[in-house]
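Final report, results section. Input specification for complex C-07:
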Amino acid sequence: MGRSQLRYLALVGAVLMVVAACGSTSSGPAAKQVKVGLVTDIGGLNDKSFNHLAYVGLQKAIADFNVKGEVTESKTGDDYVPNLTNFASKNYDLVIGVGFLMQEAVGKVSGSFPKVHFAIIDGAGTDASGKDLQHSNVQSLFFKEQDAGAMVGVIAGMLEKNKKAPGNTNVISAVGGVSIPPVNHYIAGFKWAATMEDPGIKVLIGYSNNFTDPAKCKSVAQSQIGQKSEILFQVAGGCGLGVLQAAGQAKVYSIGVDADQKDADASVIASALKKVDQATYTAIKNVVNNQFQGGALTFSIANNGAGYSLDNIQLPSDIQAELDKVQAAIKAGSMTPPADIPA
Amino acid sequence: MPFASVLFAFVVGAIVVTVTGGNPIDAYQGLLCGGLGIACTQGENPALQIANTIVYTIPLITTGVAVALPFRAGLFNIGAEGQLLAGAMACTALGIKLHDWPAVILLPTVLVGGMLAGAVWAGIAGVLKATVGAHEVVTTIMLNYVAQWLLRFLIIGGPLELAEGTSKSLPIGDGAHLATFLPNSDTLQIFGLPASVYRVHVGLVIALVAVAVFAVLLWRTSLGYEIRAAGQSQKAARYAGVSVRRTIIVTMLIAGAFSGLAGAIQIAGVDHNLTDKYFSDTTGFDAIAVALLGLGSAVGIVLAAILFGALHAGGAVMQADAGISSSLVLVLQALILFSIAANFLNAIRLRIPGLGQAPSAPAPAAVGAALMTEAAVAPPQEGTTTT
Amino acid sequence: MSAITDILQLLVTANLWQVAMVSAVLLLLPALGGVISERSGVVNIAMEGMMLTGAFFAVWADLNWHSPWIAVLVAMIAGGLMALIHAVVSIRFRADQIVSGIAINIFAAGLTVYLVRTIYGLQDVGHVVPAEALPTWDVPLLSAIPFIGKVVFQQNVVVYIALIVLVLVEIVLFRTRLGLRIRAVGEHPQAADTAGLNVYVIRYGAVITSGLLSGLAGAFLAIGVSNTFVPNMTDGRGYIALAAMIFGKWTPRGAFVACIIFGLGEAIYANNSTIHVSQYLLSMLPYLITLVVLAGLVGRSTPPAADGIPYAAGSE
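Structure output:
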């Protein structure tokens, strides 16, 4: 039944790959082609979140700079070191580790290969005690998730304050995947900004302890909706898609994370963006242009590396004005969303 | 023969790859290169690939034993993973609390501590099986989940956490580290790469000793006789004066110690701290396949562990070089299990009793039966006495 | 003590039970499949893999044909085919049934991700739009009953289907000739054979039924609850269903009670923002409860006598 279609799709894929391969070899100039290896964490490429965005950034760089890009997905945490080492040992120019969980692996492998450039999303190259080894061949790509969280927090807080929310219950909530820094930064900014706009607001925070099972996040979301939450912020990757579903069914609002999740459900009014694709692209561009520098590179509202998108909603102009004001203030440094969740 | 099972899996795997539009030759070339350092085309370093395979193989050997030993007693230990986690947690906790002890005392302490923790974890299932007849498949699955959550409790906001928001533990003391065979040097070049990339550690020797202990225990001791007797027929074992209950408990304790050792070796030899990656570790489940493919013998377990270690290491290279999803490795692993289960398991008399029931010993069937189709021609006639 | 008070307060809210019901049904369908399979004498721990396969094919079919009912059909066929493999390997070839079950689970985990890569490349699998998802339906009149109405009669259609299947399985197994035959084959295959029953046909039928039910559960998870496919999204539910089956002593009603307990555990956990206890210890609770119950509170659990023992007719 589906077999023929499947084979057809596979064939198309194979043809495209061949075409792509021909294209890259024929157009290759005499100059040495830059080789980039991307290692995902255990979320894999279809995580609809940062692994996926890193891949998008790599694809854009391949198109723009004619670099050679390869991807390896880590099946378990034991794969980080071998997968990074594998690219480094083949003299790749840049090896990118995606995710906070790879810090020690990047720290170790970058020490073994001082001539290879490394970049790590959401972390630094550390030793086992969490100390940044500050290897000069490692670029840390950090994000101020709290900036993005704050923008969507402004939207939620203003909607409640101006009585423009579905039921004006004055309760909003966040569903986190696991209580780790990148997740909590988002929630910190969200709660901080919502409370700033509407001091009387109640912000519920729950964790699904899961990044892959939407049903688990849906349960958490439904519990929050049962406690009158009407704007739900998902910070749980693939699991969090369940939050968007729950909001849609209960006719309340939801907010997406990392990528623009407008298409996931009609309830998505906005998404907090973490532009991992831009970070990956920038890191590759720097290597191509021989401008690689070790140390931290932080992506925030200030350099458009974090932000928000408005999705299935038409915002009143006063809320839009407030959003623009807060964004300008964060950009100028006169407002700083906290990295830790306020009490 | 097990080789036929592996061959069968690779043939069917090739069909799967071909049907979905991939090139099986490229796929297997990637697997061979990544697993064994043979036939590399993209500049991979063969020595590095072999070293990676060995590092993956080490915990598979000891957890493979932890599954194989209860098999012999007619018990199905699906809890090797939970026991491994218990061992890793105990090793880490001891390595942190006693971090200033000298290596000669600390290293044995953390390894033995890991074994004890694993033994206790498996012992719970053993006691429940021996006393109230709770099926070990269910209890060990539940214990796996409990261990996973205990792990997160310890390292996220719990007593072993490095610092708030790090979701990993403090590092264990230097004295608790297992040495690597090659110096951990970034400057010394061996086989064209810095010595530090070859992570093979002394845990390899410990695992090989452990598997030898398993063989001696099973075939040269009275306990081993009792285990085998209980596995073939509990009724007959009782007539022969074997305490089946005691055997069940002791078997699970020993099995848990092997798994716990695997966890402790991973911490002491590779990671040096406990991280969230252990939450999604799968070694203890791969061990089931290792034990089955290894036909429960010491040499077989080592060979099977090498195969699965090589498949694990090879999957990543296959994906990078041939663009074929490393999930193919799981498909191959399942196919190997199917063909073994359909054929060879009966041949080595590894009859797992139906929940709570002990079937009588099956007659030894033709070990030489090759593929599934042959088994279909001549099905083994055995143990159907059920009443 | 505050954690216990928190939980007690939650237990009187209809919202908690409504959430628990969905979690319970996701376990109930595979658990009922397990009951049928094991009552006929075939140990089945492959529900996890059959459910995962069903989940993937449900999304794939729904995205292709834009109908949740075609998707359910495809998912059930996919689950049934996985079950058929288990049946052939463990009935025809008399393989160890636990090993075969584990192999199915590994196979499904590998195959689904492999198919995602092959069909969708490295992109998002895609989202099923709500109009093409399995619908929620309020039962007229009954849904207005206080508390019960919200918990039982304002649910996804699959919840109603599952409850009907529950009653059907209970009746068929214990009140019909077919049920008697299935149980006879599971308890005394020789005697059943002598009495003229075809042991193989009954066992094949039972195992395939477990695959159909698990596939349905997968479809519910994928296009009723989540509206997308995420690799490994079943997250161990098949194993919990297995525990529920044993917990319920191989009876449909017993399994149902156990599923409700696990569902409640999940629903209580989902309220971790309001319960004053470590969320990780709270997560452990359902598994600890199962261990304690197995340790003696329910007494010795006795499986069908021939469960797990391959049957070889003398004449074959």
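Chain B touches chain A through 53 residues (CB under 8 Å). The longest helix of chain B spans residues 103-132. This concludes the modelling results for the funded period.
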